[in-house]
Design brief:
The chain has 2 domains: 163 residues, no CATH class; 109 residues, Roll (Chitinase A, domain 3). The protein is built from 1 helix and 19 strands. By secondary structure, it is mostly beta strands. Strands 14, 15, 16, 17, 18 and 19 form a 6-stranded antiparallel β-sheet that branches. Strands 5-6-11-12-13 form a 5-stranded mixed barrel. The radius of gyration is 32 Å and the shape is globular.
């Protein structure tokens, strides 16, 4: 960020002048007044204008602006980054999550989720670092801008024409009126301040946010300058099918869920749409994650909302809510739709 300091001072200097006054009578005039500076009077001050400081360009300046995340079914994140107002070598980042009625994120959002605090990304250094920029890729050495990321204690708020809010027993619940039925989630309540290391990188004019994982940095999110919509294509529609209703704690955004699951590739020729099985936790350690925190695919973050502990649900997840064009390793090819059976063991 360039900073320029312009100083201008206008100083008026009054010189002492000897004035000869003419006498009114008689033959003599008044004595002349000396033009010399009277003894004991200080001369006018000397004004020195300091030089303007050398402008400083932050390595983070190239990230400033509005960036759009990929469409994840009906959800699309918007990140606004600007240089810190206090002059620090840091970015302020505000995040908004928009909810669209149509799969593919076309049209105006019907609801938006905002945070009451912004993130501070403080510059540390720029260094060649091993990074995985896309899922399944091999690590590559790239010059990452390493930052520390911090956010103060915050709360979430949802608003928009599709949002209704209820409060029952002190718990706030938001419902979004999608055309194919409402989706409701409970407010997770106040969130504690958090901080940690991270990194930024421009990859073909796309903003990549990364976090360290062992000896490498892994891409957490990727943003573009243009808001892109994702056509649904010929894949299956997103479906949530409850096969057993639970009676325990409600799964809501921000809660920690422990589940058992099995996943298959979607196969339209099968009666149950289950193709090749690619993963399961059955017979192993159950899987625990935080719902709505981006720790799992969007099809899970959206598909497990509203379940209760003890319940079982089948999810049919289009590629746009799964691993998209990138796929995942050798097990999940690009543009693959998936089927999951999920047993919700507990909600914390």
């Amino acid at each position: 960020m360039e900073r320029k300091l312009h100083a201008r001072r206008l100083i008026g200097l009054c010189a002492c002048m000897a004035l000869a006054a003419c006498g009114g009578g008689g033959g003599g005039g008044a004595p002349a007044v000396s033009s010399a500076t009277p003894t004991g009077v200080a001369p006018p001050p000397v004004v020195v204008t300091p030089p303007a400081p050398t402008p400083v360009t932050s390595p983070l300046l190239k990230y400033a602006g509005t960036w759009y995340g990929p469409c994840q079914g009906r959800l699309q994140d918007v990140a606004s980054l600007s240089m810190a107002a206090d002059g620090a070598n840091a970015l302020q980042m505000n995040l908004v999550r928009n909810f669209h009625d149509a799969i593919g994120c076309a049209g105006e959002p019907i609801a938006s989720e905002t945070l009451s605090a912004s993130f501070a990304l403080t510059y540390g250094s720029t260094a060649p670092t091993a990074a995985i920029l896309t899922p399944g890729a091999q690590p590559a050495q790239v010059p990452l801008d390493l930052v520390s990321i911090a956010i103060g204690a915050y709360a979430r708020t949802r608003s928009g024409p599709g949002v209704t809010t209820t409060i029952e027993n002190g718990v706030r619940t938001w419902c979004i009126a999608f055309s194919d039925g409402p989706v409701c989630s409970a407010d997770a309540g106040p969130q504690a301040a958090a901080s940690g290391p991270g990194a930024l990188y421009l990859d073909n004019n796309e903003l990549v946010l990364l976090s360290p994982s062992g000896t490498v940095h892994v891409a957490d999110a990727r943003y573009t300058k243009d808001r892109a919509v994702a056509p649904q294509g010929q894949g299956p529609a997103f479906q949530r099918i409850d096969t057993l209703a639970g009676s325990g704690t409600l799964a809501s955004s921000g809660r920690s869920l422990t589940v058992n699951y099995t996943g298959w590739l979607y196969d339209a020729t099968k009666a149950d749409f289950k193709g090749a099985q690619f993963d399961t936790s059955v017979g192993k350690t159950p899987f625990t994650f935080r719902l709505g925190a981006g720790q799992v695919i969007a099809g899970w973050d959206q598909g497990l909302l509203g379940m209760r502990a003890g319940g079982k649900r089948t999810l049919i997840v289009p590629a746009s809510l799964a691993y998209g064009r990138a796929g995942s390793g050798n097990a999940i090819p690009p543009d693959a739709a998936l089927v999951f059976e999920v047993d919700l063991i507990s909600v914390q």
